[in-house]
Each structure stands twice: as C-alpha cells, then as structure tokens.
Amino acid sequence: MNRFMKSAFSFSAILLALAAVAPQADAQQYGRNRSDIVLVTPGGEILDYVPPGRGFVYAHDYSGNRVLVDRYGNIIATEMRARGYYSPRTNRDVYNDAYNNDPYYPDGNRYGDTRYSERGPVTGSIPQDAAIERRALEDQPYPGDQQGQDDYAAIEPDQQVPPADEPRPAPQEPVITLKDKSKPEIVALQVFLDRSGVSPGVIDGHMGSNVTKAIYAYEQMTGTKLDPNNTDAILEDLRMNGGLPVVSYTITDADAAGPYVAQIPEDYSQKALLPSLAYTSVTEALAERFHMDENFLKEMNPGADFTIPGTVIKVVNPGENKKGAVAKILADKGRKQVFAYDDAGNLVAAYPASIGSTDTPSPSGIVTVERVAFNPGYTYNPKINFQQGANDKILDIPPGPNGPVGTVWMALSKPTYGIHGTPDPSRIGRTQSHGCIRLTNWDATELAKMVKPGVTVEFVD
C-alpha cells in the first residue's frame, strides 16, 4: 500500500484532492443511495460501513475511482462496482425481498432453499446457553476487586485506524479468493470452519481476512487442504456433521423478555450507573448466540418482528462448542489470530483476535493464565489503565456482554493484561486492542472453558 501511495499521491496532491472533493463520509448516504457500489479495502475486504468521525474524506485516485482517505492520507477503501465482487445472485439488495430473490426463501418454499437450510421451524434448535455462560467462578476475583494492579484490564476503546507511521504486517499466506460465490455459499463455508474449531469470527456471508485465516488454520489442524470453492462438498459435510448451515428458530418468551438496556453509553461514568451492561435488543442477543453479525441477522429476516414470541426466523447453525484441554496458547500479532494447542502439540482451536497496538503493545515472550472469570465486572482506574474522557476517578463498571471485557476475563501473569471478550464482535481482527487479546464473546467463552490456570500464553510477532 505504501508503494501505491507514493506513486498515486504526493502529500500536496492529497491536500489538493481533499480540498477539492472532500464531502464528509456519510454512512447513511452510502448505504441508501449507492447500493450498486461497494467499498473495498487495500486488503481486499468489503467494508459494510463508512467509519464514523470527521477524519475521513473522499478523494480520487489516478484511475478515477473514489477512495476513502483518513486524515493521514492513508487509503481506507476504494469504491468499486458491486457486481465485480458479488455474483448476480448476490446483489446487495437480495435480502430485501423475502419472497422473490432471497436464496433462503425462494419461490414457493417459505422454508428456504433446502441446500442451505433445514425445512420447518425449529424452536430452540440451539440451546439458550450453548454459546455464552454467565456465572462467577468461586475463589477467582473479577478484574476490579482492587487487590493490586493484576486485577485491571489494560484496554481502551478500539482504534479504528492505526497511525500513519504504524507498520502494517505483510500477509502470511496467499490471499484466498472465491469464484462467483453467493452469500449462502459463503455462510456455508463460515459455518463449516466454525464447527471445525477454526473460528471465522462473525458469520456474515462475506469473504474476508478472518475467513482466509480460518481456512489456513483448518489445514494446519487437519493436515487436509480445504477447497473453499467446493460448496457441494462443504454442504455434504455439514449435513453429516451437525446439520445444514441455516435453521429456523422460534423466538421464545425468554428471548423477548431480556433483560435488556435501552443503550450503552460511551462514557464510563454513565456505564457505572447501569445495573448491568446487558444486550440492547433481541437481535443483538440472538446474533451473539448464533455467532452472527447483527445486521446480517436482520437481512436474513426482512420484516420480522424479533420482539414477538412465536416469530419464526432464520438463523445460522454454528453447532456445538469445541471441547478439550488447552495446554498452550499462541498469540500471533502479525496474523491477528490466537492458536490453542493441547499437551501433545496438536491444534485444538484457532480464533481471529485483536492484539495490541504500537501505543500499547502486547507483552512479548511467554506468560501464563492466572485465573478465569465468567461474566466479570470491570474496574476503571485512570492511573493504571487509560484516561477515558473527563473521568479521573475509579469507577466500578457492572458486568454484561456489552462490558469493556465482554463475557470472559482470563487474567495473565503480566499485570493488567488478559484475554477477554468484546461488545463489538464484528470488529475483531480488523481493529487493534490496547495490549490485551480480544476475541468475540463466544470464542472467548469457548476458549475459557478449555483453559486452566497455569496454561502458557506465548506472544509472537
């Protein structure tokens, strides 16, 4: 990317371009009025939103394409025609019509295309607590019990864009591309990987870096090369092992009841006033339970009222949690991925992760897991962690999936550092953490149940 920047933009040219074209990036305008356009990052990922904030503007490259540029002159994404990245069957509006175009709801079959989803509504097809467990561990203090600096998590809100001078790691393996695959086909691939114990992160029907990393991890785990373009073989494996990738689910009374909170404030002093940092909606809760991107869950169920018990919706079927005993964890900073091994050195599971940054790097070398806490509270201490807004006092932040460390905290022997969940699963592997290892809540929970105090954690570059 640096070479491209040097050849396509000089610093003065960027300033002129920004001054000339520079309409403020607007997520709603992009989503509503430019549905035939996608934003493609330099790494080949499709950006489903325009990053918020005033530091992003549009310019043009020498090919005439509009590019989204940050305040440092870094290219965040380039506008491309959607048909170059989606097959004709996966137009961006494909999910807007539940009766004609949606591959999950084809003509004359309200239960969807049987290649990808099972017939008939299934109530509670995946147990309520299959993905996330909310319980305290006896004799294991939560971060924030004020027993020393070890109890504090060294985290801060995500950095969406790294500083201009921060090095970007080169790809470790060749980029994997799919040949004219629809969203349902990509969902099938993501579910296959998730069930195999190599997490693709949120399941959203997009081929991105997290899926690519999971494919290579699968090959490392099994010794078998996976052809991601062989959808028939993937679907057949899914049928034989856990069922098809999409199932019908009936919203229960408990789903609709919550408890939920109206919204999660950004300010930590306001967070501290809430009884819990619970989910904000049924869709957020269900999306996490089924390992999905929340917007994708809504796309799959256009017009559905998730607040009414008895409503039948389509959800991803990720299968059972991985089980086993983990003896060693490898945190690969360059790949933004965590690998879990048993005592024989076999790969048990792999997860996309956000690991450290230049300002607050993760530790180097080997540390150990000291304790594990589920559904942890969090103590904010500006003298130890970071300065959040105008808050200069210690604050006790209540537990919940939308808390700063999500649903799990695995404290490391390096003070203030840990492995934990996140309230923003769709950003895992795409943003940076502030020293800790951040996973999706469901991946962090799965890993925590396979880990005991004393497990080694090695950080590699």
TrEMBL record:
Residue ranges of every copy of the L,D-TPase catalytic domain listed in the record: 327-460
Alphabetical list of InterPro entries matching this protein: LD-transpeptidase (IPR050979), LD_TPept_cat_dom (IPR005490), PGBD-like_sf (IPR036365), Transpep_catalytic_dom (IPR038063)
Species whose genome carries this gene: Rhizobium viscosum (Arthrobacter viscosus)
Pfam families the UniProt entry points to: YkuD
Top-rank taxon: Bacteria
Catalytic-site annotation from UniProt: 420 (proton donor/acceptor), 436 (nucleophile)
Compositionally biased residues, Low complexity: 96-109
PROSITE patterns the UniProt entry points to: LD_TPASE (PS52029)
Protein family according to the UniProt entry: Belongs to the YkuD family.
Pathway assignment: Cell wall biogenesis; peptidoglycan biosynthesis
PANTHER family referenced in this protein's UniProt entry, alphabetically: BLR4375 PROTEIN, L,D-TRANSPEPTIDASE
Region (Disordered): 89-126
Keywords: Cell shape, Cell wall biogenesis/degradation, Lipoprotein, Peptidoglycan synthesis, Signal, Transferase
Descriptive protein name: Lipoprotein-anchoring transpeptidase ErfK/SrfK
Signal peptide start and end residues: 1-27
